[in-house]
Amino acid sequence: MSARETLQDAPRHAGAAADAAGDGRGAPAALRRVPRFPHAWCLWVPLSQLAVLAVWLAWGWRAGLPALLASHALCVVPVFLPRARLYAPVLSRLPARGRQVWLTIDDGPSDDTGPILDLLDRHGAKATFFLVGERAAARPALVAEIVRRGHGVGNHSQTHPQAWFWALGPRRMRAEVAQAQAVLGALAGRPPHWFRSVVGMTNPFVAAPLRAAGLTRVAWSARGFDAVREDPGAMVAAIERDLAPGAIVLLHEGARHGRSVEMIAALLARLDALGYTAVLPETLDVERTVPAAP
Q1: CB 278 within 8 A of CB 122
Q2: What is the average pLDDT value for the chain, to the nearest integer?
Q3: Could you state, in order of their start, the residue ranges of all structural domains in the chain?
Q4: DSSP, res 82
Q5: Are 83 and 197 contacting, i.e. CB atoms less than 8 angstroms apart?
Q6: DSSP string, 143-178
Q7: For a pLDDT cut of 90, what percent of the chain falls above it?
Q8: Average pLDDT over residues 230-239
Q9: What are phi and psi of 252, to 5 degrees?
């Protein structure tokens, strides 16, 4: 079977598996963070600079220069903060429901995907795989297998422009989100409803394509820097420090050090020992316990 035929067949098989698994449900409304006003920054950024100008004219450069620097910092710094909500709303943890956490695995699919799926099965754990569109298109069978085993698929951009995602303009940002959404929707049988920014960065042009695709941006509340750390014990200890009911745990596959499977195996063993269950947000009944996003 050719890669094109596999791509065409994937939606039929993956969609049926998704309906059988918990991921077949839509994202609970209480957890959705689809941007409502994606172009609000077009108003408040000019207004902030007018305010700076007014300060400068009224009190001179000694007050105006600090105001100018502060206004620019307030615009730029949130781009690099994964949980900042200035340019787009974000989901950074789940409502606490006992010892339940959400495992999110970025950057796949990769050679690690199959072994990770086996690990998750052995531990009775579920995870959402935030996949890169072009990598998914190259390995459609792995996407179908993720869904068949009852896990989630999220959008992690089309090409994963790690160095420049923070600086992408509106056209390129729209393409990164929309193209990945189309590819992953075709392969998984339904479009993703979660989006993970590359390296967690979010500039002013992210919100519009997220709104167009109905996507919720997802950050994290626990991480162990598993993509760069080579010591599974240190990685698990770092995650454990921030572990709590409802934590969103950031993990990766295909890391250059080649120990991603070992890292996730160590974490799953520790979660078992601590009595935590890894679940998908789609399976949680949170409508009555969490107010809808504004």
Answers
A1: no
A2: 90
A3: 3-35+88-283, 41-80
A4: T
A5: no
A6: HHHHHHTT-EEEE--SS--TTTGGG--HHHHHHHHH
A7: 84
A8: 97
A9: -135, 160
The Cα–Cα gap between 151 and 143 comes to: 10
Q: Are 238 and 265 in contact (CB under 8 A)?
A: no
The single residue listed with the structure tokens 């959404």 is: 181
User: From CA 162, how far away is CA 37, in angstroms rounded?
Assistant: 26
Query: Which residue of the set 23, 106, 107, 226 is catalytic?
Result: 106
pTM for this predicted structure: 0.88
Cα torsion angle, 6, 9, 14, 20, sign: negative
Q: How far apart are CA 194 and CA 220, in angstroms?
A: 12
Tell me if residue 226 is catalytic.
Answer: no
Write the single-letter amino acid at 12: R
C-alpha 261: how far from chain center: 20
pLDDT of residue 27: 81
Burial 203-219 (b: 16+ CB within 10 A, else e): bbbbbbbbbebebbbbb
Q: Does domain 3-35+88-283 have CATH number 3.40.50.150?
A: no
Q: Which of 151, 160, 193, 252 is catalytic?
A: 252
pLDDT in tens, 50-103: 999 999 999 999 999 999 999 999 999 999 999 999 999 999 999 977 999 999
pLDDT value at position 286? 63
What is the pLDDT, as a whole number, of residue 287?
52
Mean pLDDT to the nearest integer, 3-31: 51
> Residue 290 gets which letter from DSSP?
S
Lowest mean pLDDT among 17-21, 99-103, 177-181: 17-21
CA distance 44 to 179: 30
Is 106 tagged catalytic? yes
